[in-house]
Design brief:
By secondary structure, the protein is an alpha+beta fold. It is built from four helices and four strands. A four-stranded antiparallel beta sheet has the order 3-2-1-4.
Amino acid sequence: MSLVLHARYVVARAAITRDFSRVALDALLARSRASSASQKHIVSVGRLAAVISRCEAFFTRTRLLPDTCLYRALARFAVLSAHGADPTFVMALPSDGSNEGHAWIELDGEPWLDDEDLSSMKVTFCYPPARTFANPAQRRAP
């Protein structure tokens, strides 16, 4: 099963890299969620975290695919959705006005597999919309 989980992450990462420049971000996320809705494979979030961490370490070392927080967050969103979790994809910019944005995934309102300091980030996009963020001051109205 572990090999299958690794393969699913690699396939998701490759598909996102291929489709990112062709498909609007919200449509890409909606497609990830819709395609997984009919064929969820329930796996623990802890097990997925271990698999995703190993795959991401591989991509960081090999540079086979783009390795930014955006691509990691999109792949995490797709894999978590496919395995029964309910993730939120979040993009934000620092409050100080710099252009160094960040993308991450949240589960139950908390960042998942992310060690960035998000306290000064202002959310610019989330999917699905109107979710709770780790910083309550950044909540969007429904």
